[in-house]
């Protein structure tokens, strides 16, 4: 009886498979009170659109990312952000089809990404990805699964369109920056865990990303 009660509490705290979760996985699944912190480098705001409409234009994509693969990644990130309570849709831009009103164009563009893996431009409604940065990643670290990096970049940049403008100071969050460039480091429950993986940051939004997104959009923190 007591064991069952304990198990019930754990399930509530960890939302599912907690028993076998690594510390990193637990940090992804659970947002503890007081854990949300940002670098205060932007002001969160409501999502750019309701629903958010993302349209993928595959022109100039690296040859090792097929359109179908990128579409899958985009849909996975979009679905992962659904916990925010803001609907989002993903479709492919085909031929000369007109852009849906208010659509955000996901495109491969060196100019648009300005030396970053990806860049969200809310004014121009573009989510730009850098072919050169993904080429560099492939050259420097050919064994690293680039698909995971792309998933992370897409999830992060989508977060800006959902209204998360400040970067998280919580290392695990997909909206995080590891440092502020001035000597400040991101926060982790156990910083020794950072060295256990090549990339500590989650590739999909974490429970804290979702919680902050709900706050930015004026929604109750605990989803029904
Ligand atoms: Zn960002």
Automatic annotation (TrEMBL):
Lineage: superkingdom: Bacteria
Q: Which UniProt keywords apply?
A: Signal
The question of whether Signal is a record keyword is answered with yes
For this protein, the record's SUPFAM superfamilies field holds: Metalloproteases ('zincins'), catalytic domain
What residue range is the signal peptide? 1-19
Q: What is this protein called?
A: Peptidase metallopeptidase domain-containing protein
- Species this chain originates from: Roseateles oligotrophus
